[in-house]
Amino acid sequence: MERRLVVAILLMILVAVVPSLFLKSPRRPVAHVDSTQAVPAEPAAVPEQPAPRPVAAATGRQAPPRVPLAPAETVEIATPLSRYTLSSTGARVQQAQFGAYRMYGARRGPPVDLLRPGDALLAHEVVLGRDTIRFDSVAFTVDRQADGATFRGRAGDVALTLSYTLHPGSDYVLDVAGELGGLGGQGALVRVGLGGGFANTEADSVGNYRSYGAVGRLTEPKGLAFSKLALGDTATLDGPFDWVAVKSKYFIGALLSPDSTKPAFGGLVMTGGPRIGRFATQAATWATLPVGPDARFRYRVYLGPQEFHQLRTLGREFDRASPYGWKFSFIVMPVSVWITELLLWMHQTLSLAYGWVLVLFGIAVRLLLWPLNQKAMRSSVAMQAVQPLMKDIQTRYKDDPQR
Questions:
Q1: Are the CB atoms for 246 and 194 separated by under 8 Å?
Q2: Measured distance CA(89)–CA(46) in Å, rounded
Q3: Most CB within 10 Å of its CB: which of 62, 212, 262, 371?
Q4: Are strands 221-225 and 275-276 parallel, antiparallel or unpaired?
Q5: pLDDT single digits (tens) 336-366
Q6: Helix (H) or strand (E) holding 238
Q7: Distance between CA atoms of 12 and 9, rounded to whole angstroms?
Q8: What's the CA dihedral at 255, 258, 262, 264 to 10 degrees?
Q9: What does residue 312 show for φ and ψ, rounded to 5 degrees?
């Protein structure tokens, strides 16, 4: 019986592994930036924003009145796995699409687009004393580069520059650099919008909304679920933080300090939004970023799936943005990370589908535990053989249990 089982396991391994040796993974295309001429976007119904307060108190110069903005100009930055659309309205991300993933799990459906229309992802505001300059109230021009785009605008005497560049070696990371000209050597505070939560991409919307939340990390990740905020309530996560993020069930958008030893973000401010039952579908989230006398700031943006290898590559415990294991996560997560790395290694090395990887992993575990299982089975069989004798003794001496 044992010999037949071993032969069957070996045959299954041969059937699963041998075909993969003759299959090669397709080569991935090279990342590119769409350099086509930008076309003015449709005159979308953008809600009228209140005019920014004058910056005279902070700069000593009179700010001009707000002028109507020209139609938005867009530019696309693409990698083999992602496509980001940047808009001159606010110099922010307007769309984030991922061709490897489909909305609601449909194989032939449209690719995932994480952003809701009009969402404030990577919207910027500059706080100068009591005054605020909102980037969405500034007319920006766009300069295209081979691997990104630079936006330039002016609010009174303050020159605003913001550039986005593809990060080498990553499909989901952008480098962001900004400069505030005309501040006269004084510092400022920049507020960076993380949006109100991603568009729902799952058929199980409630399960997706349950995972909505914000998280920041200095030495240990700490977060707050959107469902903890009532409509209109405001909550903060006090930093400093090395990275800050908002997340859904399977996707995450994060701002990371350019230097992991120098946390750049002061904290997170969240305001509760609409709800479905016990779960919030939105919560406006902003990160604070102090700017020094040089009037320059930099950070990185990860916007994509919570894929283990992608998050692990960034380091800084970024893969722990969505902890699991509840109160025993300090035990569960190290073991699960080891198992995940093993499964991914098998998937890449053997070029097998994840289903076959799980089958092989189960067989391997079974083989490793074979000696223990055999010992337990022998002990069980021995106990079964003794049971009739024990029952006979109990029956024979039921009147004299001591004997």
A1: yes
A2: 10
A3: 212
A4: unpaired
A5: 666 777 777 777 788 778 788 888 888 888 8
A6: strand 234-241
A7: 5
A8: -40
A9: -65, -35
Determine the Cα–Cα distance for residues 377 and 323; give it in Å rounded to an integer: 38
Rounded distance between C-alpha atoms, residue 261 and residue 292, angstroms: 17
User: Which residue's structure tokens are 């779960």?
Assistant: 279
Domains recognised in the chain with CATH numbers: 32-316 (2.70.98.90)
Can you tell me the distance from the alpha carbon of 347 to that of 360, in angstroms, rounded to the nearest whole number? 10
Interstrand relation of 111-113 and 121-128 (parallel, antiparallel or unpaired)? unpaired
Cβ atoms of 225 and 212 closer than 8 Å: yes
> Which DSSP helix (H) or strand (E) runs through 287?
strand 283-291
Give the tokens for residue 381: 């069989």
Q: Find how far residue 369's CA is from the centre of its chain.
A: 37
How far apart CA 98 and CA 23 sit, in angstroms, is 26
Which are the contacts of 9, defined by CB distance < 8 A and separation ≥ 6? Answer: 363, 366, 367
Give the Cβ contact number of residue 54 at 10 Å.
17
Distances (CA, A) of 392 to 340, 380, 387, 397, 403: 52, 19, 9, 9, 14
What's the pLDDT tens digit per position in 247-269? 998 899 999 999 888 899 999 99
